[in-house]
Design a protein that fits this description.
Distance between the termini of chain A: 74 Å
Largest sheet of chain A: none
Number of helices of chain A: 10
Order of helices and strands of chain A: HHHHHHHHHH
GO molecular function (chains A, B): DNA-binding transcription factor activity; transcription cis-regulatory region binding
Pfam families (chains A, B): TetR_N
Protein name (chains A, B): Transcriptional regulator, TetR family
Keywords (chains A, B): DNA-binding
CATH architecture of chain A: Orthogonal Bundle
Shape of chain A: elongated
CATH topology of chain A: Tetracycline Repressor, domain 2
Number of domains of chain A: 1
Oligomer: homodimer
CATH class of chain A: Mainly Alpha
Helix content of chain A: over 70%
Chain lengths: 211, 211
C-alpha cells in the first residue's frame, strides 16, 4: 500500500505553518528575536514542540523566515513610495518619512529587524536586504539626476549611505531603553523631531530641491 | 601545602593569551570571523586545544575580544583626527577620510568588523561601538555649530546618520566579492572614488563649509 500525502493534509500543514509564523512574529514584535523559544512558541501556537520541528529545523530558521517576511513588507512599502508620481526629491522625502513612520508604529519589531543582535544566519539576511534597499534608492537617485531634483555623483555609493543613515538614525530612538524612558504622550512629538532631522540629513546629502 | 600561582606563571599566561589573540586577529584579517576555529587556532598559536579553553570559553569569546581590540583602535584613530586642530568641518573631512583609508588598507578585517554576519554576542558589540562612534561625532557637530563650519539641528540623530552612512558606504566596496572582482592596480583609483563620494554625502548633509 502506497502512503499518499493528500491535498487536505498538505493544506493543513500550510495553515499550521502560517499559524506558527504568525505567533512567532507576534512574539518578536513584543519582545525581540531573543525572546523566541521553541517550547513557548509551541504553546502559543497550540501544537506539540515536536510538531514545530516537523516544520522548521529550529528557532534560527523561524527567525530568518520572520525577518524575511517582515522586511519584504517594508521593502514593498518603500518601493511604492519611491515609485509614486512626483519628482525624485519629493518621493525620497515621502519614502523616508513613510519608512520612519512605519518603524515608529511597530518599534519593537523595527528595532529587532534593524539592530537587535541576532544569530549569524539572520545577520546575513540583513546584509542581503540592505543591498535590496540600496538598489531601490539607486533607481530613485538616477531619476533625480535626470529630473534635476537631486544632484548625485556616485549613485551606488550614495544609495548605500542613504540606507545606512536611515537605519542608524532609527536605532537609538527605537531602542528598548529609549522607548522605556519616553513618556506615553511624547511619542508623536518625538517622531516629528526624529523624522525631520533624518530628512534634513538625507535631503541635504543628495542636494534635493523641493519646490 | 598551599599551591601558589607565581608571578612568573601569570606572566607566561598573559604572553600566551596575547599570542593566541594575535593569531586569531591574523586569521580574521585574512578570512573573516567565519574562519575562526579552535583547533586551527591552537595549531597556529602552537598550543594544545585544551590550553585555548583555559584562556577562553570558546571562539565566540575570542571573536568578541578581537572585535573589541580592533574597533578600539579605529575609535582612537578617529578620535585623534576629530580632535586635531582646525575647524570642525575640516576635522570631519579628515576623520572620515582617515577612517575610510584605514578600512581600505585592511579590507578583509574592516569588512569583518563592519558587516560580516557574526554571532549575536559579537553583533551586540557592534551596537555598542556604533554608540561610541556617534558620541565622537556628536562632540564634533557641537563644535561645528559653534565655530560656524557646520549647521546641524538635531545633533545626536545627525551623529547616528554619519555613523550609519560611513559604515554602510564601505560595506559594498570592501565586500569579498568587490575585492575579488577588482584588478590589483585599480585599488587606489577606486579608493579615491569611494572616499570622495562618501565625503560629498556627509559634508553636504551637515552643511559643511570648507574655506
Amino acid at each position: 500500500m502506497v502512503y499518499r500525502v493528500t491535498e487536505a493534509r498538505l493544506q493543513r500543514d500550510r495553515v499550521l505553518r502560517e499559524r506558527i509564523l504568525d505567533c512567532a512574529l507576534q512574539q518578536v514584535a513584543e519582545a525581540g528575536f531573543a525572546s523566541l523559544a521553541m517550547t513557548s512558541l509551541a504553546r502559543s501556537a497550540g501544537v506539540a514542540t515536536g510538531s514545530l520541528y516537523r516544520h522548521f529545523s529550529g528557532k534560527d530558521e523561524i527567525a530568518r523566515e520572520i525577518f524575511t517576511r517582515a522586511t519584504d513588507l517594508e521593502v514593498s512599502q518603500l518601493r511604492q513610495q519611491l515609485q509614486a508620481p512626483g519628482t525624485a526629491a519629493e518621493r525620497l522625502h515621502r519614502g523616508i518619512r513613510t519608512f520612519a513612520a512605519r518603524a515608529w508604529h511597530s518599534r519593537q519589531l523595527a528595532f529587532a529587524l534593524i539592530a537587535e543582535p541576532v544569530p549569524g544566519e539572520v545577520d546575513a539576511c540583513r546584509l542581503h536586504y540592505r543591498e535590496i534597499y540600496a538598489e531601490l534608492f539607486s533607481q530613485l537617485l538616477e531619476q533625480g539626476n535626470r529630473d534635476g531634483s537631486l544632484q548625485v555623483g556616485n549613485i551606488p555609493l550614495t544609495a548605500a549611505c542613504l540606507v545606512g543613515a536611515t537605519a542608524e538614525a532609527l536605532v537609538g530612538p527605537l531602542s528598548p531603553q529609549a522607548i522605556k524612558s519616553r513618556a506615553e504622550g511624547d511619542s508623536a512629538a518625538d517622531f516629528e523631531q526624529v523624522c525631520s532631522a533624518l530628512l534634513e540629513f538625507c535631503l541635504r546629502a543628495v542636494a534635493a530641491r523641493l519646490d
